[in-house]
Request: fold
Amino acid sequence: CLLLWSKNDDPVETVELASEDDDWVSLRLKRDQQEFIDHRGLHVVVGHYLGDVNNVGASANLTDELLNRNMFDPKPKEGRDGTPVIIPPHMSLQMQKLYRINRFNLMASDRIPLNRSLPDVRKKSCRLKKIDIDKLPSSTVIIVFHNEAWSTLMRTVQSVIDRSPKYLLNEIILVDDASTRKFLEKELDDYVAKLSVLTRIIRSPKRIGLIKARLMGARQAKGKILVFLDAHCECTLGWLEALVSRVAEDRKRVVCPVIDIISDETFAYVRSFELHWGAFNWDLHFRWYTRTTPDIMKGQRDITQAFRTPAMAGGLFAMDKSYFFELGGYDEKMEIWGGENLELSFRVWQCGGSIEIAPCSHVGHVFRKSSPYTFPGGVSHVLYTNLARVALVWMDEWQEFYFKFNPEAEKYRDEQQIRTRLELRDRLKCKGFKWYLDNVWPEHFMPTDKRFFGKIKHMLSNRCLEKPSGRGSLNQPMGPVGIRGCDVQGRASLSLMFVMAPEEGLDSVVWSGSLMTDESVCLDTPELEATDEIALKVRIVACTGQKRQRWKYDAETMNLVHIHTDLCLDLPAGESSIVLKGCADHASQKWIFEQVPWR
Ligand code: LR7
Ligand code: MN
Reply:
């Protein structure tokens, strides 16, 4: 899951690593060192650029494969109805080699017909719902790509053509962001000329990144509605009607489909839940969270109803073209990849629009564990430039929070020219980030001036509560709450930070409510029925707002009380698990809420 590159054919000396949880590390290598195990135990293979081929990370010469548009003849039955492709064992070595080119199983994808069938994954009530398409405007589907594989790109296009009502689909625009693969030149031109829906190719002579590439496509679109897709998607029946009908009703709505998973290993189509919404974490990375109970209840009256989401994943959405440009398109000073999803999300909400997910629209996307292409200028430079711009333009005082705990991004802060974006914000009379947090994402776990933000220190052992490193569903942290030394500085200290609201009506020495931390996880105790005290291990799980996640801290007694059971948080001397016990005036139950300035 790592990508590495050198600037030319010289042996790689400095490399940047991308781990699965998106933390970017750069490190130096010994000369000619080709393979090693890194400090986290990950196996790393180092490769070189292959001349004009813009592919990295491969240890073998893949030039031949890259010149071929499809390595294998599609087989009519492979992947039918979204089923997984099973590669025969004797081909597995070649399969692994090909995987590296695009960071997905190219062999599997190539064996699936471009027009494979997919199940109708919609709920029954969605299938029964009548949408009067005669009154709906038409769309331009915009797909940007840089060195995409033939089979994934063309299956995306084919699925759009096969599963959209002709009447709603004005055209498809493919924006080629300076790809270097031969088959994406004339062969692609010739192929799209024969398609039954007008498909235009716009080519950028130099690498401009997905943000500017989308802008290029959007400017030339003839449809009233813009529909953006990544270049490795598959649309299912009814996907377009469900998006467009919502935008047509209100041009200020930005509408996303439910994003299903196309496996990067087998290309199986896996339906995902309709209960997830999007937001972000303290690092400003997009994250999925589970909708809270009252919100689900509202939705259950009519499960076909679109629901509002604080942020969008970024790649798949429909938006009125004139509204897109009225709102400022995209930030043209953003580079290559990243950050534009939050930038657009904040801008839409803060400037009077809304973002929602239409549960009757399902589109599959190939999720990858790492990026297959280069980031000119370096991953850190690209990503932190973009995120610094998001913070500077839209986040008001929370930009201080972001930069304070992300010194990597702070480095790019001063060099940003943001005047025109601030003018845009002014001109559109956009609301502040506080408004966004209070109104669009009231369940958020960001620090505020009214909330407690800081470390929770155990008096007896002089150690602090820590968010577990284990991960649960949706990749959220999960597991028994940890305890460790409190003297951690900077970024690393974020795993010790907790957030809690003050009790209303009481003086500020009492904090109560959910004890939240980054990624929407809360202090919880799932085994309430157990009588054995050992079983009452205090855990960190997804915040639900339920009673059993409510706590109360009294600065006088220094007890942290679990409200539902009236038990106290305890770390018995010499032990390492945090438990609940009957409250007592005992040192093992005394905690200090140590505030840390968040900005
Ligand atoms: O320099 C580039 N030029 C491009 O044209 C880099 C990329 N691209 C193209 C690329 O070929 C692809 O078609 O841009 C598209 C998106 O790139 P990916 O597939 O590498 O991105 P991703 O799927 O890993 O990342 C998500 O976040 C991105 C942040 O910039 C974009 O918003 C992606 O569109 C977005 N993808 C989705 O939202 C799909 C659902 C994923 C989730 C959750
Ligand atoms: Mn993608």
Remarks:
- The first helix runs from residue 63 to 67.
